[in-house]
Design a protein that fits this description.
48% of the residues lie in helices and 17% in strands. By secondary structure, the protein is of the alpha/beta class. The chain has one domain: Vaccinia Virus protein VP39 (Rossmann fold), CATH 3.40.50.150. It has a seven-stranded mixed beta sheet with strand order 3-2-1-4-5-9-8, with helices on both faces. A two-stranded antiparallel ribbon has the order 6-7.
Length: 281
Amino acid sequence: METVDEQVARYYRETTLHEWRRLVRDPFQERLEFGTTLHYLRKYLPPRGEVLDAGGGPGRYTVALAQQGYRTTLLDRSPELLLRARWAIRRGGAARQVRDVVEGDIRDLSRFQDGTFDAVLCLGGPLGHLLRARDRARAIAELVRVAKPGAPLFISVIGRWAIIEGELVRPARELVEDPDVVDRMLRTGDYLGGYGFAPAHFYLPEELERAMKRQGIRIEERVGLEGLATHHQTVFNQRSRREPEAIERWLSVHAATCTDPAIVATSHHFLIVGRKGSRSR
């Protein structure tokens, strides 16, 4: 039987191209998860410096930040995603700004000295693919350790309530075949795989915030990346093609509401921006 790590590795090996395209495959992904994340990166990143993109997969954020002049290092545990990232870095003309592309695990960043980076990113799925709480705590501790005092940290994860709502409204295969799927997520946030996604832990905002605070992180902002559009991807994409003015208004409402605690808690992905204190571990 495969371990959780092996299941995660297989999932990303089989979906490498999908993962590269995921953040820009349609207006919903590009303008909400990707676009909102980039907005808050621009808001909190220092004007220049060294950035670690930990668990950065095929390198969307690495390339974007390198093109803006940041010196970036990309780390991921999937060799297939890193191969795609190297292609993307060359294709994006970002090679001079990318310091390194390395295979590694966010639980062990020992290749980097304490206080190496001016900012640290861990975006999307990496933290959530660690099912054991002690592994998630260890990963956050490592992300904090390699950040310089005062550096911003950006951690985004998949939100538990959005996933459970999705389970309830989509065709009820899982609810019928394996009713414990939703019960387990309600109790623990854990999903063991088997229905189209790798094993994952789905977070509550307060849970991630507590974990970051335990490592001496001061919370700056919480953001629901898809916000009110979370379960309206089809409508958002249709209107993007047919009613661009309506989408611009939608995006203005998104910008005004995406930091509301209720919106953060029910968004498919949410981002927490923190800052390392001068005495963080």
